[in-house]
Amino acid sequence: MSAGIRKLVICGGGIESYTLAHRLKKHFSDSLSITLIESGNVSEPACVSVPPAAVNFFTSQGVSEDVLVGEAGGLYRTAVLLKSVNQGKDFYLPFSPPGFMLHARDFQHFYVWAHKKGLAHSYDEFSLSSMSAKRLKFLPASKDAGSLLSTLNHGYTLDVTRLKDYLRSKFQSMGGSIVDGEVSSVSLDADGCIACLDVHGIDDSSVVGDFYIDCSGEDNSNLSSALNASFLSERKSLPVDSIIRSVSSCSGSYRPFSSISLQGAGYIIEQSAQYKKQSDFVYNSGELSDEEAVNLFSEYMRTPPSDLKKLSGQSKRRNQFWVKNCIFMGASSGFLQDPFMGTYSLSQSSILRFISLFPSAKESAPLAEEYNRLTHLEYDCVVDFHSLLFRVFGLKSANARSDSFLGEAVSDRLKSRVDMFNHTGRVPFREGDPISQDLWVSTLLGSGLVPRAYDILVEGIEPKWIADQLKKMFQMIDGASAKMPYLKDYIAQGSAV
Amino acid sequence: MVKQSIVIVGGGTAGWMAAAALSNKLNPYLYDVTLIESEKIGTVGVGEATVPHLRYFNDSLGIDERDFIARTNATYKLGIEFVDWGSIGSSYVHPFGLFGRPQGDISFHHYWVKAHKLGAALPITDYSVGAVSAEQEKFSYPTDDPDSLASKFSYAFHIDASLYAGYLKEYAKSKSVKRREGKIEAVKTNEEGDIESLTLDDGTKINGDFFVDCSGFRSLLLGQTLNVDFESWAHWLPCDRAVAVPSERSGAPIPYTKATAKSAGWQWRIPLQSRIGNGLVYCSKYLSDEDAEKTLLSGLDGAPLADLNFLRFRAGRRRCSWAKNCVAVGLSGGFLEPLESTSIYLIQVAITKLLDYFPGMQDSSYLRQQFNAEMEDEYKKIRDFLILHYVATNRDDSDFWRYIRSMELPESLERKMRLFCERGVVEQYVKGMFLEPSWVAVYLGQGIVPENYHPAVDSMSEDELVQSLDRLKTEVQHHVELMSSHADSLNFYASEESFKSWPPGAMSLYGVFS
Ligand SMILES: Cc1cc2nc3c(=O)[nH]c(=O)nc-3n(C[C@H](O)[C@H](O)[C@H](O)COP(=O)(O)OP(=O)(O)OC[C@H]3O[C@@H](n4cnc5c(N)ncnc54)[C@H](O)[C@@H]3O)c2cc1C
Ligand SMILES: Cc1cc2nc3c(=O)[nH]c(=O)nc-3n(C[C@H](O)[C@H](O)[C@H](O)COP(=O)(O)OP(=O)(O)OC[C@H]3O[C@@H](n4cnc5c(N)ncnc54)[C@H](O)[C@@H]3O)c2cc1C
């Protein structure tokens, strides 16, 4: 190896740590030695939901769907249900884009055109993945490019404990080493880089590496204090700060979607894998006392308040994610709330970024700078998207106009994006955005913002022809989703084979 | 909707490409398209090398590629050979395609860098089907088998630009574009500053709702009438003149452009079916027109076929391409010197974006803003890539090259170069032209080898590495052996009966499958 990162140390034993550790082992085999330090006090989530990008992520890591949805107990997910979002109606934010292009123009313009002429269907009714999710049905994408089913897309809701156990045992069998104990102090070298971590455990020890990844979760770790790493607050854009969680076991009725619904000064996220269901109430403690929150939540969940767990959930991100010879990943990189693009999903893309920028010496300013630049680009987009979801929920009236639609506390980036949508019917592409333009459009249309304008070239097409096409599309999608198997049966079949 | 009239000013490559695309997409019951051109003024008369994206443009017009080749006197272009750039005596091909094969997420060039440091690598172009077939003057269509290296390259054309404009003129007229001959003498704007009408030298007045300025360097509407500033990039791309001349063909046409660096600029050689296009691009501060003429003529490999065409330009762009009710397409919007033949690509992009953001419904300021932001991004990405060719060198044999050495770079390029030098990383982006393989081609072709390669390369043993490069080389050679000569392929594909045998065009990477 050129100059040498021979030894990498990961601090933390959560899902993020093991995903990274396993990935790096796959990549570097024996040319990189990896030590993972885990302390026993685990308070990890039961479920995490990930978008379609995760399919490739896991495949290229050698973790198959048979594992994810089989032994690791996850479920397929094709949409996010936004409960009573627009005039009390539910909207299924789809993973496969609604409709089809006509005359090489995007479908959304035809939809807006028709909507203005009184079309009764909502936007998600043109998406096969929304329609199938609504009916609790599922099929993976067909490989036959000509088939309607080839447009499908899915992500997962994963069972954190089971998946972690799987990755952990793989990591160990590939020669990765695990140290039990808690990092109690950090020593720096003359350059200000981390030289070693002192671990307090059954046997006290000191772990030395060339490069470190901090996956120690939400609490400000001793690595970050040693490196003077700080956070930027995202409270303004994402004005919630507290979480109460309820986890229950899940019986039988599989849902191929996760859901979000507005409750008081917050929202409830519900996600379920095969054996577990997790519900989180995320709220603003300035507007709701903890007691009020607990009452509200237990009423909604019909759970005794004693079964609830309280977590902190300040919205923030690192000023710099890569400092000296250390990267902060997972919950320790920040928390942008998780209604759509969760922290774990963001780490998957951070892992890929880290691998592509993997340093060849313990310190590399250009690589760190690039990593930070790209990570911020991605986080900007996610903050904006979540911030949009909050505004959407904060707004109960219909016929929103973009001026009042967003309210005050959002970034100029988001304002200009929504303005652009409102005045042109298009959401501009942004470099580094993990959320597709289709999803932005679905979210905006689904939440009731019908843009003032659409692609003018639609006007040049015979109206009756467009109307017929839309009708046909709807029938095709409706018909195809009705014929799909129930997720439950699909899974049962799979495990029978 | 009241019928709108669109007026295109200028009948060069930009004007007729715009006319063809607009008439193909716009409903003739709703839009009138008129194009005004002046024989007195004429066109710039250069611009013969293209990039693969043009194939997508032609596809979307429904043009038969074989017909296009026959009508424009075209040859295939697999890339550009750069001679004397990194240092005098060195040369490399920048192909429209990939090098080798990535291993998982790690691009091939990292493996190459390690092998190179071990002294066990051939030039990186030897691992590219696109580059080797260019060197061996062979050509065939790429295949569509994603596992085969023969699917990892694409191609463009060398064309007679005036024939292409004529071809598109025919196309546009058949789609009811009206052509007006005449020199525009006056432009009238209304109180809002929008352009209202144009007056021709014979006194005719032409009204329009929307104007497409394809008037070339003059920038008659955007620059002269709407006063949009020109942002000069001449401090980074100092060449400001060119002299061009066609010459007699010697031997069969080769499937690539040649760009040879000179003491105060560079010289192009573009092979067409019937002749060769030549030109010297130079910096007037360091070379006189007379010396330029001498350099050009002494570098021809056949007798000149016409008078010399002297051209002046400035590298840079109008601060925005769309102002008021007018979009500039082509040279009127900007020009970045012809080094990587990106000008027709920029025309294509502007036209495509204009159609994507076509104005007419309510306030078009948002469409304009988006269009301008995207065009600016396209220009800047190409700009950085062009500058790289000049700075990735150890040449200091003239004042021109010494100036280049001393100049300060755009921050965006400095960052890119730092990343590459440190660890062979090419900045990733999705939109815009020249992605990783192109950057790698120029860096390595011009002698910038990164300090370090991706550490994952070390999980392969040195023996394995050397063997795998060897296998790759054999694989590449095998594919190229199966190809016919460029000249034979030109004949063969042209005579094929089947309706559409050429691979589809695309706007991604090089418009290939990978
Ligand atoms: C309401 C809510 C909903 C969410 N929904 C989603 C979702 O749908 N999708 C998604 O992708 N993400 C979601 N997330 C985020 C996801 O749950 C977190 O990203 C993930 O759990 C964080 O994992 P982690 O491994 O970084 O941290 P943790 O799970 O907190 O693990 C940290 C580990 O580090 C160890 N540790 C801590 N300090 C030390 C020390 N000093 N020494 C040694 N070990 C130490 C701990 O013991 C623990 O094992 C959600 C989060 C919340 C709050
Ligand atoms: C040295 C050089 C080499 C180049 N090489 C390449 C290359 O290899 N590849 C590539 O892609 N590009 C190349 N280009 C760029 C390419 O030539 C141009 O992008 C292309 O020709 C388009 O030009 P245009 O249509 O914008 O302008 P022009 O060809 O100049 O056309 C302008 C039109 O406007 C009309 N006009 C102007 N004023 C008036 C008026 N007042 N009234 C009426 N009509 C008017 C003219 O008559 C003419 O029809 C090169 C450019 C230069 C300078």
Describe the fold and architecture.
The complex is a heterodimer of chains A (about 500) and B (about 525). The longest helix of chain A has 30 residues, at about 365-395. Chain A contains 15 helices and 22 strands. Chain A has helices spanning about 15-30, 55-60, 65-70, 105-115, 130-135, 160-175, 220-225, 290-300, 345-355, 365-395, 400-405, 410-425, 435-445, 465-485, 485-495, and strands spanning about 5-10, 35-40, 45-50, 75, 80-85, 90-95, 155-160, 175-180, 180-190, 195-200, 205-210, 210-215, 230-235, 240-250, 255-265, 265-270, 275-285, 310, 315-320, 320-325, 325-330, 335. The radius of gyration of chain A is 23 Å and the shape is globular. Chain A is an alpha+beta fold and about 500 residues long. The relative contact order of chain A is 0.16. Chain A has a seven-stranded mixed sheet, with helices on both faces. A six-stranded mixed sheet of chain A has the order 8-2-1-12-21-20. In chain A, about 35% of the residues lie in helices and about 20% in strands. Chain B has helices at about 15-25, 55-60, 65-70, 110-115, 130-135, 160-175, 220-225, 290-300, 345-355, 365-390, 400-405, 410-425, 435-445, 460-480, 485-495; strands at about 5-10, 30-35, 75, 80-85, 90-95, 140, 155-160, 180, 185-190, 195-200, 205, 210-215, 230, 240-250, 255-260, 265-270, 275-280, 310, 315-320, 320-325, 325-330, 335, 485. The mean pLDDT of chain B is about 95. The longest helix of chain B has 27 residues, at about 365-390. Chain B starts with a strand and ends in a 19-residue tail after the last helix. In chain B, a hairpin with a 2-residue loop joins strand 20 and strand 21 (about 325-330). Chain B has three domains: about 5-50 and about 160-235 and about 315-360, FAD/NAD(P)-binding domain (3-Layer(bba) Sandwich), CATH 3.50.50.60; about 95-155 and about 390-495, no CATH class; about 240-310, no CATH class. Chain B is of the alpha+beta class and about 525 residues long. Classes of the chains: A alpha+beta (about 500), B alpha+beta (about 525). The interface of A and B includes residues 104, 361, 419, 428 and 431 of A. Bound molecules: flavin-adenine dinucleotide (FAD) (2 copies). Chain A: This is Tryptophan 7-halogenase. Chain A: It holds the Pfam family Trp_halogenase. Chain A: It comes from Gilvimarinus algae.
